[in-house]
Write a structure and sequence with these properties.
This protein is an alpha/beta fold. The protein has a domain of about 160 residues: Purple Acid Phosphatase, chain A, domain 2, CATH 3.60.21.10. Helices cover about 35% and strands about 20% of the residues. It has eight helices and ten strands. It has a five-stranded mixed beta sheet. It has a five-stranded mixed beta sheet with strand order 4-5-6-8-7, with helices on one face. Helix 3 packs across helix 4 and helix 3 runs antiparallel to helix 5. The chain is globular, with a radius of gyration of 17 Å.
Length: about 230
């Protein structure tokens, strides 16, 4: 295992996911790791879940996965996310909800003298803490926590904003979002990461959002979800 692909926040946007998988295949990476949120926002959760399980070495549980699995939506969730989580919960079989509920909160890789952790939000709050690149206080706190638990590389998602932060020999890496980018670029985002050299390459993949937008209209979800796909924010 040398170069791996890190993906996150697919959010039932099957068109974006397929485009990313096609692009990953071109790079002939050894493994794909997913940092969670297979469902929520868009309308193809079932094929997204099964495709992720088939193609990814590890899939971490995200906050939307947890909500859909349990049918319990926290009151602080975005208003435009609620109908799609309800839609996913109603459409999933008991087995698929069990799959989401059983996803791990974190996964640790041992790389010679280094340890890498994969998580959806943050090591302190695995499902719900937002770590933004401009929030230096939270970034520093995360580096401090990584030192405490002896983690050298931390992969996380949740914010849908790609970034890389490095402090001494420690790295925090967010691959951005496959299904709903929020950094002003509407192309799907993922990362190629060399597990030996720690070389990092952020990849953007153009795709046709027509299918996702059609699903929004068909299921009468907020049109803001379509606008976000087009604007990338």
């Amino acid at each position: 295992m040398t170069t791996v692909a890190i993906i996150s926040d697919i959010h039932a946007n099957l068109s974006a996911f397929r485009a990313v998988l096609t692009d990953i295949h071109k790079h002939k990476v050894s493994r794909i790791y997913c940092l969670g949120d297979l469902v929520g926002y868009y309308t193809e959760p079932i094929p997204t879940i099964h495709l992720a399980l088939a193609r990814c070495e590890v899939v971490i549980k995200g906050n939307h996965d947890q909500a859909a699995a349990l049918g319990e939506i926290p009151i602080h969730y975005r208003n435009d996310s609620l109908p799609s989580i309800e839609l996913a919960t109603q459409g999933l079989t008991v087995n698929e909800r069990k799959i989401l509920h059983g996803l791990p909160l974190m996964y640790t890789l041992y790389l010679d003298n280094h340890r890498a952790m994969m998580i959806h939000a943050s090591p302190e709050y695995p499902l719900d803490q937002y770590i933004y690149p401009e929030d230096e206080e939270n970034i520093q706190s995360t580096f401090d926590f990584m030192e405490l638990i002896e983690i050298d590389v931390l992969f996380l998602g949740h914010t849908h904003i790609p970034f890389l932060k490095q402090q001494d020999s420690r790295i925090i890496l967010n691959p951005g979002s496959v299904g709903q980018p929020r950094d002003g670029d509407n192309r799907a985002s993922y990362v190629l990461f060399d597990m030996e050299s720690f070389n990092t390459k952020f990849i953007r993949v153009a795709y046709d959002p027509t299918q996702a937008i059609a699903g929004i209209k068909k299921h009468h979800l907020p049109l803001e979800l379509a606008n976000r796909l087009l604007a990338g924010k």
